[in-house]
Amino acid sequence: MITLKQQVFEANKDLPRYGLVTFTWGNVSAIDRHQGLVVIKPSGVAYDAMTVDDMVVLDTEGNIVDGKWRPSSDTATHLELYRRYPSLGGIVHTHSTHATAWAQAGLSIPALGTTHADYFLGNIPCTRALTQQEVEGEYELNTGKVIIETLAEQNPLHNPGVIVYQHGPFAWGKDAHDAVHNAVVLEEVARIAWIACGINPGLRHIEPYLMKKHFMRKHGPDACYGQK
Amino acid sequence: MITLKQQVFEANKDLPRYGLVTFTWGNVSAIDRHQGLVVIKPSGVAYDAMTVDDMVVLDTEGNIVDGKWRPSSDTATHLELYRRYPSLGGIVHTHSTHATAWAQAGLSIPALGTTHADYFLGNIPCTRALTQQEVEGEYELNTGKVIIETLAEQNPLHNPGVIVYQHGPFAWGKDAHDAVHNAVVLEEVARIAWIACGINPGLRHIEPYLMKKHFMRKHGPDACYGQK
Amino acid sequence: MITLKQQVFEANKDLPRYGLVTFTWGNVSAIDRHQGLVVIKPSGVAYDAMTVDDMVVLDTEGNIVDGKWRPSSDTATHLELYRRYPSLGGIVHTHSTHATAWAQAGLSIPALGTTHADYFLGNIPCTRALTQQEVEGEYELNTGKVIIETLAEQNPLHNPGVIVYQHGPFAWGKDAHDAVHNAVVLEEVARIAWIACGINPGLRHIEPYLMKKHFMRKHGPDACYGQK
Amino acid sequence: MITLKQQVFEANKDLPRYGLVTFTWGNVSAIDRHQGLVVIKPSGVAYDAMTVDDMVVLDTEGNIVDGKWRPSSDTATHLELYRRYPSLGGIVHTHSTHATAWAQAGLSIPALGTTHADYFLGNIPCTRALTQQEVEGEYELNTGKVIIETLAEQNPLHNPGVIVYQHGPFAWGKDAHDAVHNAVVLEEVARIAWIACGINPGLRHIEPYLMKKHFMRKHGPDACYGQK
């Protein structure tokens, strides 16, 4: 658990370092699948005052196992995603500027180029609006459910992020570090797409064969990017 | 007074730190309701040369009680707001880029997402234009009056900021630190709304039930955000 | 001269500090009216390698009086402005992003708010295109002439900057430091105006009485901004 | 080779310093024409962990001569350009934000002002889309070929960069340092053009005589910019 707490702590500290959060508007978690335990940032604690010991440890039903603070108010969303997708090791939520703008616009972030296709195999979908009942009920749990509904049968590691309508982005990965990496990509891709659509509103989606080439170059069985 | 001067000094220094001001284009004040005294930044003094002792202390009618400098030229606006709203403890004025752009556009900043709704329970209103008489008369006092006219019967802590037409934002809070916090939020929310409206000019306001959920999660009697 | 060289050196170093220049794309000069001497940045010297001794001293006809380098390639523009306007003490040229974008758009930067009116009493005009003859002849001198033609009978200290069509901004002031200050304002005002026009293409110019109020509050005979 | 490895290493480190890359999204190479050897960044190695010894040395056919890592996945593109253009000494590829947005928009970056014309003698062209066959075959080699097809008979040092459709910018120069310089210019020019086109969609290209004047002032036989 010490290692996982350290990883989650460092991943949380990376959020302001990459310019993804203002104040406390973001959180990172990670899961230890063996022990069935999740580590997450405490709610409303300032990033620069935060220490490893402030991290909260829960089981996947949300019972606190270790930690002196209340967990992030978005905890139920994280847990729902961990329960549904065994391949997820880390999850991030932020209100990063451009991804949040797309969420407010209510549109999926279109796959327009290789920067996008190096990480996401298709558009980054925007969820439907939650109903009044869903919001007034178990809101954070229902946020997790609508993300799952939106991903449908897709492999979550082939589309490692979603934007929640009128809210903001959730991203994930094989661990906390990877999840933050994907959150940075999601924000940068959202920013480039905004500018590109402004330059040419009639632009086209990336050619499917170019998207596949780039995604597979980094993530396929014969990946040639990076070092073996 | 020493504590309040220190608080106002630090809150003023936070303005350039958060990227809200160019040169001396901003000011923060705070009030001690017990003593009926207001502390405010001196006029036209550079942020990096400013010390605690440069802060100016006034009574709520604007008479200088302590300090070697003239107070901010916007002092009469601050005082009018303190007189009208007993719940205000701190006030900030800046020319932060995106909030000022909305003020120049003459439009209220629409409530489009949860980032907005975490702090503002509704649109951030833009005042009407001041008349020639109002500008040529007691301009700064009249700026305070038009802000009050714009807020009407709203709780100022439920809408902790307004943009003044063709001018820029005023924000406030329960103390100087809180006021600066809300000024940062106002600027970020203005920026996201600009981008979102550019992406989808036909976007919708946030659902009222989602706005209420988020505002109350942070500010309601049963707030679950942060630590008790 | 030592003092003026120091001032011009420091003002040039301020350009990258304020984010106004990429590489060597900018220059500041100042004039000693008593001695009739102008100090200007050398051409194409990197800002971080530059020292006070690299500054070039010229008379107002452009003859080098002191210095080991060639002066800025824009020197003839600076000199023409000093000759025409006795009130100018310092001049700046940059390719700052947003002011340059307005120059490329070929439009004057409209006076839309008090941020603008605190420094510029009216739109920031864009010059006409230079003719082929003017460009192929004494180009830099003709750039100075077209700036003068654009200002016409206006007081240059009431409109301390102009954008040159398809080129970029020139700004000035009572000394080198003041000129850089106005160049920073010009860039920020250009940025806000771009965003404001994007939010509401039908926005209105600032009310003339509000513009006058703000300009005079800072620059009029009864200025109340800052310390006496 | 030690000198060239050092130069390529430093030029690669400049990419994050100038804000041109996120993570490992970029690479710089340089060529020693005498020895016929190319030095390039290794694939997927983080910029802050990279050392001079991580650089990879290849011959112009792509055979590794020295180095412990796999070369950048874009190596075949670099080599094709070196083989075709004897004047090139260094090449850069990035996914810099605004240049990538133009690539996604599928439009050449129009020559709109002197900032552009100081470095590029004409529009910065966008390549055609690669066909499915070209992408599924020798993709990186074909990327080099389509850049060459796009430049056609132009002098590559008179148009030291191109944007590849739905991908991003390639820039070059007489050495690695110069190539990075041009990549910075390309990104800044792309950003200004985006803003300028937003301000005035009906804006005009730079007058040909003004473009020529500026390009020749810096690059012509009688260049008067900088120090001899």
UniProtKB/TrEMBL annotation, chains A, B, C, D:
Its EC number is 5.1.3.4. GO terms for cellular component: cytosol. The keyword Methyltransferase does not apply. One of its GO terms (molecular function) is L-ribulose-phosphate 4-epimerase activity. Residues 6-194 form the Class II aldolase/adducin N-terminal domain. It is an enzyme of class 5 (isomerase). It catalyses: L-ribulose 5-phosphate = D-xylulose 5-phosphate. InterPro entries: Aldolase_class_II_sugar_metab, Aldolase_II/adducin_N, Aldolase_II/adducin_N_sf. CDD domains: Aldolase_II. Its cofactor is Zn(2+). One of its GO terms (biological process) is pentose catabolic process. Pfam families: Aldolase_II (PF00596). SUPFAM superfamilies: AraD/HMP-PK domain-like. Keywords: Carbohydrate metabolism, Isomerase, Metal-binding, Zinc. Belongs to the aldolase class II family. AraD/FucA subfamily. NCBIfam families: PRK08193.1, PRK12348.1. This is L-ribulose-5-phosphate 4-epimerase.
